[in-house]
Every structure is written in C-alpha cells, then in structure tokens.
Amino acid sequence: MRAAAFLDKGGVGKTTATAHFGVALHNDGFDVLMIDLAGKQNDLAKHFGLLDEIEASEQKPNIAHVFDDSWDYIVENVPDVVDQLTFETDEGPDLIPAHKGLDQVDDELASRPVEDRDKMFDDFLTSHVESQEYDVILIDLPGLTNNITLNGLQAARKVIAPVELGEFEEQQLKALHEDLEEFNAALDETIEVSMVIPNRVQSNTNLGKQLLEELREDYAETVAPVHIPQSQDIRNAQKSGKTTFALEEPSNTATRAREAYQVNANELVDRINE
C-alpha cells in the first residue's frame, strides 16, 4: 500500500501526519517505510531524532541519486542499495531520509523527456523497494507542485491531505482536487485524495465547530473519521525527536491526537484496499 502526504502549501502538517500514520500503522502490525522527498530540511528525520546519525553517515548513496543518471551505476555497484538508503527509527517504521541533493533534482528532471521524468520514483519503488516486502510506503512530499511532487503522486496514487480550518485552506483543498484532475488527464493516471485530515482543530470554539462541520459536508466521502486537535504537545514531541505515541505523560490533547491518528490510519488502510 502506498500513500503520499501532500497539499500545495507548507506548514499544514504533512510531515507530522506521515510520522504519526507511520507509527500508528506499525502499532497495528504493518511493516512501514517512510520516504522523505520534502527537501533538504529533513524534517522527517528530525521528527524521529535521527538527523545527527544521518548527517554523520553522509548518506552515500542517498535518495537524490534515484533521480539522476548515477542511479544505474549505483545499483550495479552497491550491494543491498535500499538497505544503504534506509534508517531504523526507535518507534518502529523505517525511514529513507531526504537529502540536500533533492534541491537540484527538480531542475534536472525538467530537462528529461516528458514521458520519463514523472515515472522515475515509481520505477524505484517497483524495481527496488517492493522486494523489501514492506506492507505500507508513506511518502512526505514538498509543499509545492514540482517535478519531485509529480513523481511522488504518480508513484503513490493515493493522497493524504492535512488541512487547517479556514476559507483560504479550503480553497487550497479545492485547488488540490482540480490539480489532480489535470494531472490524471495529462499523465493518464488515477491519482485521488484518499483522506482529508482536519488538522490543529480547536473544536472547543464555535468557529472551530462550524468550520469542521462545513468541511465534513463539503468532503463527506474523503474527510478523516476523527479530526486532529490543536496540541502544543505535538510540537514539543517533534522538537524532542519523537511522535506523541512516544510521550510518557501526554496531555489530554496529545492523547486525543494520537488516538485520532490511530483511528484515521486504520481507515486509510480500508480506503486504500477498497
């Protein structure tokens, strides 16, 4: 099963959703691989406290190589190349981290033939990662539409879209559905939103309740079963290199958040399998 966290906007919670869905699915007995394509900041590695280990390894090879001409040479000459790319987290899922070389990949992809440029990541997953027998592959994508994003979307075909509540954010969500229709027509694919996740919701306010109800009406078929509440503990956990699942004394809102991620992750599996 593959899914990608994406919305054409930064700071909406894509990385947090990827991390929490990864741990939630691991808790349910799935072997999970998370892949960070979101850029050199390597936030997913930070989320699991792996940044120092990854930087010390110098990541040779790294995920950026998948998109350039050196990849075929690497595959032929580096034994167990996917193992070389992959790091274990303390919370269960494995991680292929981002790399600063991803910043150059978009321009390099633009020079490739149209029929090839958006399929390279799918080819990597199909030819090299699927043999590792993971049950779930979760992809964290950039908060903008570029050639890396299109590669990730085409490889995953299922989209997780975290969204905060507000008029501007709902416009972004509407634009996402419109963009996917264009991508599908251009790429002859079926990329679809599997789950809209109401994120950082303040449901104790009248405005928060109203906006949540409106989102559930507008996206009844794809909205997540449970919203993610606003919680400072989510940020605190992230800064300390963990998810809320690893907190020993979570606050009430953090407890509700991880329960919500667990329920939503289970539902995601059902929707993908359908």
TrEMBL record:
Domain AAA: 8-192
Annotated spans, Disordered: 232-253
Pfam families: AAA_31
InterPro entries listed in its UniProt record: AAA_dom, DNA_Partitioning_ATPase, P-loop_NTPase
Superkingdom to which the source organism belongs: Archaea
Start-end of Polar residues biased regions: 232-243
Alphabetized PANTHER family for the sequence: COBYRINIC ACID AC-DIAMIDE SYNTHASE, P-LOOP CONTAINING NUCLEOSIDE TRIPHOSPHATE HYDROLASE
Entry protein name: Chromosome partitioning protein ParA
Native source species: Natrialba taiwanensis DSM 12281
